[in-house]
């Protein structure tokens, strides 16, 4: 199925969301998959990775999300190679707090000294004097959460980061973080089949905090033959991924999906999801499908 046609990402088409002091369009780009297999090492097609980043900006994406652990270091270097000097309206968000010890291994390290080292490394790789949005990638059970967030607050006070976000966090951890610093974004797994962070999303809505759902394209069995995602996609001449993204955009005004890919064609397909208008009945069907 070819999917609906690509269109330019505009404020009117995607809607906008305030992230700190920046207004960004409500479809971002997640740069994790620009790296090698298993999110380790360089991409198999370097030129395509560069082309994806440049095409994302051409299409109107003005938020790119990455992390030092993607590669590690690879994703951030690719972003700088492709886009530096950055457009004035582009918000680059990165994360620290995970390390890589091999394929599928993401041990956390939330020690303040590690987070400082990670942030300073991201500054160098991204060729920035200040990171506009720096996010704690995951709580480290061996380190008090207050210490990890406090390290980001200290980096903020020093002018190395502008805004603070958290990721893979509970409502309690969000409240703990808010007691230490202003939190402008939360990035948790959320998609049409995984809504375990519904309570976090609800709290973000109450507080006016941007919510970045990771793994936004996942649809599982709902995208299988005869499933609700498949049926809606067939009806609209769209793909399952486009339906999943359209549902997220309808789910909450604070939602900002950060779909990632290593393919220009797939990027264009994802961006086109902003033109897919789901009916109220279709939204209800998707809402109830995973309950």
Kindly provide the name of the CATH class of the domain at 25-218 and 255-262: Alpha Beta
Indicate the proportion of strand residues.
15-25%
- Main sheet: strands, sense, barrel: 7 strands, parallel
- Taking all residues together, what is the mean pLDDT? 95
The order of strands across the largest sheet is: 3-4-5-6-7-8-9
Radius of gyration (CA) equals 18 Å
Fraction of helical residues? 25-40%
How would you spell out the order of helices and strands? HEEEHEHEHEHEHEHEHHHH
CATH-derived architecture of the domain at 25-218 and 255-262: Alpha-Beta Barrel
The CATH superfamily of the domain at 25-218 and 255-262 turns out to be NADP-dependent oxidoreductase domain
Secondary-structure map:
Layout: H1 11-14, E1 16-19, E2 22-25, E3 29-30, H2 46-58, E4 63-65, H3 74-83, E5 91-96, H4 112-126, E6 131-136, H5 145-157, E7 161-167, H6 171-178, E8 183-189, H7 198-207, E9 210-214, H8 228-236, H9 240-251, H10 264-271, H11 280-289
Parallel strand pairs: 3-4, 4-5, 5-6, 6-7, 7-8, 8-9
Antiparallel strand pairs: 1-2
Description:
By secondary structure, the chain is α/β, with parallel strands linked by helices. It has a domain of 202 residues: Alpha-Beta Barrel (TIM Barrel). The chain is 38% helix and 15% strand. It has a seven-stranded parallel β-sheet with strand order 3-4-5-6-7-8-9, covered by helices on one side. A two-stranded antiparallel ribbon has the order 1-2. Helix 3 links the parallel strand 4 and strand 5. Helix 2 packs across helix 3 and helix 8 crosses helix 9. The longest helix is centred in the middle third of the chain and has 15 residues. It is globular, with a radius of gyration of 18 Å. The mean pLDDT is 95.
């Amino acid at each position: 199925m070819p999917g609906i046609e690509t269109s330019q990402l505009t404020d009117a088409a995607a809607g906008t969301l305030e992230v700190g002091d920046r207004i960004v369009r409500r479809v971002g780009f997640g740069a994790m998959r620009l790296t090698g297999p298993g999110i380790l090492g360089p991409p198999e097609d370097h030129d395509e990775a560069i082309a994806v980043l440049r095409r994302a900006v051409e299409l109107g994406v003005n938020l790119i999300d990455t992390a030092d652990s993607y590669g590690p270091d690879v994703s951030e270097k690719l972003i700088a190679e492709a886009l530096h000097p950055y457009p004035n309206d582009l918000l680059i968000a990165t994360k620290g707090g995970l390390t890589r010890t091999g394929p599928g291994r993401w041990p956390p390290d939330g020690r303040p000294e590690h987070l400082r080292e990670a942030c300073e490394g991201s500054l160098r790789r991204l060729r920035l004097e200040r990171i506009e949005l720096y996010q704690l990638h995951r709580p480290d059970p061996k380190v008090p959460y207050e210490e990890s967030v406090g390290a980001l607050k200290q980096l903020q006070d020093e002018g190395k980061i502008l805004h603070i976000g958290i990721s893979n966090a509970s409502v309690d951890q969000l409240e703990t973080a808010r007691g230490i610093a202003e939190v402008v974004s939360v990035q948790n797994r959320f998609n049409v089949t995984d809504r375990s962070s519904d309570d976090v999303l609800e709290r973000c809505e109450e507080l006016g905090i941007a919510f970045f759902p990771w793994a936004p394209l996942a649809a599982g069995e709902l995208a299988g033959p005869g499933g609700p995602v498949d049926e809606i996609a067939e009806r609209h001449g769209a793909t399952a991924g486009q339906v999943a993204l359209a549902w997220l955009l309808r789910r909450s005004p604070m939602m900002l999906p950060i779909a990632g890919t290593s393919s220009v064609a797939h990027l264009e397909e994802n961006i086109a999801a902003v033109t897919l208008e789901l009916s109220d009945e279709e939204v209800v069907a998707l809402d109830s499908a995973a309950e």
